[in-house]
What we know:
Blueprint: H1 18-23, H2 26-39, H3 46-59, E1 63-67, H4 70-80, E2 88-91, H5 98-105, E3 109-112, H6 123-129, E4 134-138, H7 149-159, E5 162-166, E6 174-175, E7 178-179, E8 186-190, E9 204-208, H8 211-220, H9 242-252, H10 255-273, E10 286-287, E11 293-296, H11 300-309, H12 339-345, E12 348-351, H13 359-374
Amino acid sequence: MTTFWDAAPAVKVPYTALGQQAAALKQDLLAACQSILESGQYVMGPELAAFEREFAEYCGTRFAVGVANGTDALILVLRRLALQAGDEVITAPNSFIASASSIALAGGRPVFADIGVDLNLDPAQVEAAITPRTKAIVPVHLTGRPARMDEILAIAKRYRLYVLEDAAQAVGAKLHDRRAGSWGDAACFSLHPLKNLHAFGDGGVVTTNDEPLYRWLLQARNHGLKNRDECAFWSVNSRLDEIQAAMLRVQLRHLDQWTAERRRLAARYAVLLKPHVEVPEERPGEHHVFQTYMIQADRRDALLRHLNDHDIEARVHYPVPLHRQPVTRDLGYGTDALPIATRAAGRILSLPLYPGLTEAQQQRVAQLIAEFYRR
């Protein structure tokens, strides 16, 4: 008798398949590059302006500003707040280091609030972390699942705090039919190759409805220049190149289709894996885009070795929470701080999930996880 697991042969499952995804759009991508080569305008041209318009429309905001990477996007917006020494900005402890480092590099002090079962900031913990020095909140839409923005915004309004969405992983995510990037005073996206909408290299973008911020960012990403010959303030070079913008425009047309495929694959993983591990879920009104398919598992490290030993390229995002990093020791978090984030860091495991992942590959992942827990 043939069982489910008999249909799962020993196949390799890479964590990503970026070349495979690009191959499907190869002709359109090459045509976009060709047009840039022929134009001779490689920086700050019409492709960037068009991408910014289209991305703002996609997110449901008035403005978008392309920059060199997602970290620069965060730093530039936070610089606009003119943070002083001791000014505090609350963010999540279980994100990539850039969520906190951007606060420090903009002159502020990162403050971490604990997370909820959705692995995003717990609004109650955010409110508990507010002090007279708090200036802003930076919620992170981790793995592409929207944070509880309606609750966080209500708290921010009570305390008159700025809200900057770290939407690096969440392009296309929605809460109550409103897209990530349109909730806060501003939002920052990464266009790194591992993101659902990605450049072929680095890139980032800021969305906002705040016209003064928008006008300032146009200068801030370009040395603070008012025009070719006048500089209004000191700033960096953080421009999104024309060739990247042109290729991003090609991919933006396919983003919703890719998101639907990610969601279909995530739903299938949930059915296959629920008996063995904790799988990500959605609350009513949430539209998760699964930039990362993150499970929580007992004996995580042993499971990771088991998968890797059988050619499944699983990863951990991120094994050391931010409040336990060497660089944050001076912030004073003890070993018992932020218990939910700390516990999750020992259980989380990211499985391969991307458009083009086959059912046979998914079954192989599920087979190996089932075998591990049956032992």
